[in-house]
Design a protein that fits this description.
two-stranded antiparallel ribbon; 3 domains; globular; 470 residues
């Protein structure tokens, strides 16, 4: 790696890059895809068609309650949406105009976000799905959970065969706490054995076992050892079955001895732990916070989430934020609704979208590029927030990155923003994450930044000097 030295001189802060001796180079990495959400569903209701059905529900809600870009922009609260027309004919004329021209207006931005969201809901509404044997399933007689574990595993194998499986998938067992340990292990064994038998010894790509309410690294090691034995028995590549930990107890943050327990958990199974998810409501409940004040934006949750970033992000483990419990659902059903009932349904859906949009936007800004969804109707707001975050600042971030590259040996001032070797890492990560979540295509990244996407994937601040000689 190049050696970077910051010095003060007559020309300001200088970035001096000393190149190391020549050695074998590796192929540049491409941006790794990551899901922007995970949707949980009870194991008793899961079948091979579940993801498709949930995607249809999300698409239907979008079609009914966001028939045009102006209504959707107002619902989620995009900038200057209050100035958009409300007349259907005016909106239709405006949409035709926007489809044939490009500009940087807030109107064009709202239209692009709407189009991207609609395309996503049509092509891949569910990215990550978790078959749930914990909170979304509850406590049932052993025979019943045994039956559901076997049946759900067979349905997942069927989804693998017919191509209906989501890009990321897995199942959540109960915790490894003493009172549920036996049941968790039993479900794990039944599900994995049945899945591997039904699929002729295959597991899906990006497949994980979710371990909830983790309090100690020994729980993670226990699960990892069991997964290793499964991989060895079925001749699977090491690490084929990942682990996803859910941080939702105060004990997960610090050990009884005052040690930073999260880092111990994070580093206990490097390469095996794929992601760490935060459970805001279990966490705040355990602290005795009243129900009316529990929620993802509570200061206690902010502290826990930032500690998760400190523990997991440097190790390359994806962190995922918690849920929005205000659901965009209709209040009245039936073929003959009154005008008042129809309006109440619209306000309920739009209100739920607005809350979820704000929460997702805040999570992304805080470094959590994935979070939970509780209902498929949340997906339109989920994807809109994701696209708005990246599309809304793409040109500014491209300008700043190009400016840094143009003067790669010096810290750079673009407009009123000062960029040095530290801040430019955030610019690089912006494009990596935008590629990884599918907001930008490789061609779009190169068009905006002037940098080939494959170089973005392996770029570091110190390595930017190489770009000036290409």
């Amino acid at each position: 790696m190049a050696k970077v030295i910051l010095t003060d001189g007559d020309e300001g802060v200088q970035l001096i890059v000393k190149q190391p001796k020549a050695r074998r180079t590796t192929k540049p990495e491409k941006a790794v895809r990551h899901p922007v959400h995970v949707l949980y569903g009870g194991a008793d209701r899961y079948n091979a068609g579940t993801a498709a059905k949930l995607g249809q529900i999300a698409g239907a809600a979008f079609a009914e309650f966001a028939p045009d870009f102006a209504q959707f922009a107002a619902a989620v609260g995009l900038p200057e949406s209050e100035h958009l027309p409300t007349d259907a004919k005016q909106i239709a004329r405006l949409e035709r105009k926007l489809s044939h021209q490009k500009d940087d207006s807030s109107t064009a931005f709202a239209w692009r976000v709407y189009q991207r969201t609609r395309e996503k809901l049509e092509s891949e509404p569910i990215e990550d799905f978790r078959i749930d044997f914990e909170d979304g399933y509850g406590f049932r007689p052993n025979d019943e959970e045994d039956t559901d574990a076997e049946r759900a595993a067979k349905e997942l194998a069927k989804a693998m065969d017919d191509g209906s499986i989501t890009a990321f998938s897995g199942f959540r067992i109960k915790s490894f706490a003493p009172e549920t340990y036996g049941r968790a292990v039993r479900t794990l064994e039944i599900f994995l054995s049945t899945l591997l038998e039904a699929s002729s010894g295959r597991v899906p790509d990006n497949f994980v076992v979710t371990l909830p309410k983790v309090t100690d690294r020994r729980e993670v090691k226990d699960l990892a050892d069991r997964l290793k034995r499964f991989e060895k028995k079925w001749k699977l590549a090491s690490g084929s079955i990942g682990i996803e930990v859910v941080i939702e107890t105060p004990e997960a943050l610090f050990s009884d001895k005052g040690e930073f327990n999260l880092r111990r958990i994070a580093s206990s199974q490097k390469g095996r732990i794929r992601s760490a998810h935060f459970g805001a409501f279990d966490f705040t409940s355990a602290l005795g916070i009243p129900a009316a004040h529990q929620g993802i934006r509570h200061p206690a949750c902010t502290l826990a989430r930032q500690m998760m970033l400190l523990a997991f992000a440097p190790l390359g483990v994806r962190v995922a934020d918690s849920v929005t419990t205000t659901l965009p659902v209709v209040l009245h059903k039936g073929p003959k609704l009154t005008a008042e009932q129809i309006d109440e349904n619209r306000r309920s859906i739009h209100g739920g979208w607005a809350v979820h949009f704000r929460n997702v936007t805040a999570s992304i800004g805080e470094g959590f590029y994935q979070s939970w969804d509780l209902h498929p109707n949340q997906l339109p707001a989920r994807y809109a927030a994701n696209y708005a975050f990246y599309l809304g600042s793409a040109k500014e971030n491209a300008k700043r990155l190009r400016g840094f590259i143009d003067r790669a040996t010096k810290a750079h001032l673009t407009g009123t923003v000062f960029d040095d070797a530290a801040s430019v890492r955030g610019l690089i990560d912006f494009w990596k994450n935008g590629l990884g979540c599918g907001t930008f295509t490789e061609d779009e990244v190169e068009e905006l930044t002037g940098i080939p996407a494959e170089k973005i994937g392996s770029m570091t601040p110190a390595g930017i000097a190489e770009l000036t000689t290409r």
